[in-house]
Design goal:
This is Protein jagunal. InterPro entries: Jagunal (IPR009787). By secondary structure, this protein is mainly α. It has one domain. It has 7 helices and 2 strands. The longest helix is centred in the middle third of the chain and has 36 residues, at about 105-140. The radius of gyration is 25 Å and the shape is elongated.
């Protein structure tokens, strides 16, 4: 009866299948945005690993442990406070991942709040802080701060632009998931 070829029931022209087997829009939106959201979270974890490696010398110093010699030879620049604050956004990412399995609305809201405060906040602060130094480098092409032969201000801004894009895309997908998961038609208590 569902096939388009072959015999049809009497009185049907074969177009009555259009009303059957449709996925509701909010389920389709949820599935699409869940997979995209996971990709942004995984990429954020990769950036987090890069940041943890960058801050590893600071962690060794905080723990009163001598850093390995290869880290000492790299001469990584001194850590800024916004970098530590940005690392907290990795914990907010865990809330986002945990919310996906059972469409947990509250956990996704906590993810959004965490990414705005601990993700976008430090990135915006760092971009504003480094803006003057970037403009100065752009005009003169001279800097004394180099890392492996590359200007640190350019490397930082590349990292910050990538992080900004990931945070914005992650927030967009989270917003779409929140709209798809919004409780609909709950019964009112008398």
């Amino acid at each position: 009866m569902a096939s388009r070829v072959g015999s049809r029931p009497m009185g049907s022209d074969g177009t009555d299948f259009l009303h059957r087997e449709r996925i509701a829009g909010h389920y389709q939106s949820s599935a699409t945005n869940k997979s995209r959201f996971k990709w942004t979270i995984y990429l954020h974890f990769l950036l987090g690993l890069l940041m943890i490696f960058r801050l590893s010398v600071s962690f060794f110093v905080l723990l009163n442990i001598r850093p390995p010699s290869f880290l000492q030879r790299m001469r990584l620049p001194r850590a800024w406070m916004w970098e530590y604050v940005w690392l907290v956004s990795l914990m907010a990412s865990m809330f986002g991942l945990f919310s996906l399995r059972k469409n947990r609305f509250v956990l996704m809201q906590q993810f959004v709040i965490g990414w705005i405060i601990f993700g976008l906040g430090p990135v915006a602060y760092a971009m504003v802080t480094l803006f003057d130094e970037l403009v100065k480098y752009w005009e003169t092409r001279e800097t004394t701060k180099l890392f492996l032969g590359f200007p640190i201000v350019v490397l930082w801004n590349m990292f910050l632009v990538i992080a900004l894009q990931l945070h914005l895309f992650g927030l967009w997908f989270a917003w779409n998931l929140l709209r798809a998961w919004k409780p609909r038609g709950e019964k009112k208590k008398n």
